[in-house]
Amino acid sequence: MIISQPWAGRTSTHEHFTWKDGVYYLSVTSDGKTGKEWCEESFRNFYSEDDKSPIIQGCAERIIESEDFKPTRGKKYEIAILDGWNIDKAEWCTVENIRQEAKERGWREATPEVACLLRKSLSDEDLSYMRANCVVVMHDPLPNFSSENGQYILTLFPGKLIEGRFGSRLIRPSLDTIFFESEKRKISRANGFAFIVSEEDNKNQNFEKET
Q1: CA nearest to 67, candidates 143, 127, 119, 151
Q2: In this structure, which of 20, 42, 53, 80 has its CB flanked by the most CB atoms within 10 Å?
Q3: Is residue 210 in a domain?
Q4: What would the pLDDT profile of 119-129 be if each residue is shown by its tens digit?
């Protein structure tokens, strides 16, 4: 167990998730969108003052539109986001150790689809509540986006206001990637780490396309 003991047994409830013993829990349900549909309907790969939807950038767009993206329909995912701030020791916080902790808890690796569903579900206010610089969606290394040199992992970043010499500008929330050179790489505790706790098919539920 890596969670700091002072947090053991504590629970709090938020509008979109529940926090217990250093872990945020929430559920998301798939609606059959393909990767291309996610990019065209739910995300934007350009900046616009009038468009408030998250942007998709970097390697993330190529991952979502690749064959590694496997859409499902009516699948309810129970998600756990490990709160990095409650990890006992900073030196323990590596990709390898976080995956091992998830395995010991019975969680499994997330998927690119889950990354999209979480990006749609979690607002900047949610990430602020979590005190998370970002949420790393801990999916398996993807064959087309990993090599002996490292792997790209889909990550949710909040929007932020950038102050510059000629004024300020708002960077919109995004779905992007982090590149891990090694599973032993240390990663900041100021992040959340998302895994799948369980999943359940609910194919009889009706879904409406976004307009």
Answers
A1: 143
A2: 80
A3: no
A4: 999 988 898 88
- The amino acid present at 187, given as its one-letter code, is I
Q: Is residue 156 part of a domain?
A: yes
Q: What are the start-end ranges of the E strands in the chain? A: 11-13, 18-20, 23-31, 55-56, 73-83, 135-137, 146-147, 150-157, 160-164, 167-171, 174-180, 192-201
Contact 69, 35 (CB under 8 A): yes
Nearest to 174 by CA among 187, 193, 155, 189: 155
Q: Look up the domain containing 42 and give its range.
A: 5-200
Tokens found for residue 135:
């949420």
What would the pLDDT profile of 74-119 be if each residue is shown by its tens digit? Answer: 999 999 999 988 887 777 888 899 999 999 999 999 999 999 999 9
State the Cα–Cα distance between residues 211 and 84, nearest whole angstrom: 36
- Select from 33, 55, 60 the least CA-distant residue to 45: 55
Query: What does DSSP assign to residue 61?
Result: H
Helix, strand, or coil (residue 163):
strand
Q: What letter represents residue 127's amino acid?
A: L
Q: Could you tell me the pTM of the whole model?
A: 0.84
22 — alpha (psi -120 to 50), left (phi > 0) or beta?
left
In order, the DSSP letters of 128-146 are HHHT-S-EEE-BPPPGGGE
Answer whether residue 53 is part of any domain: yes
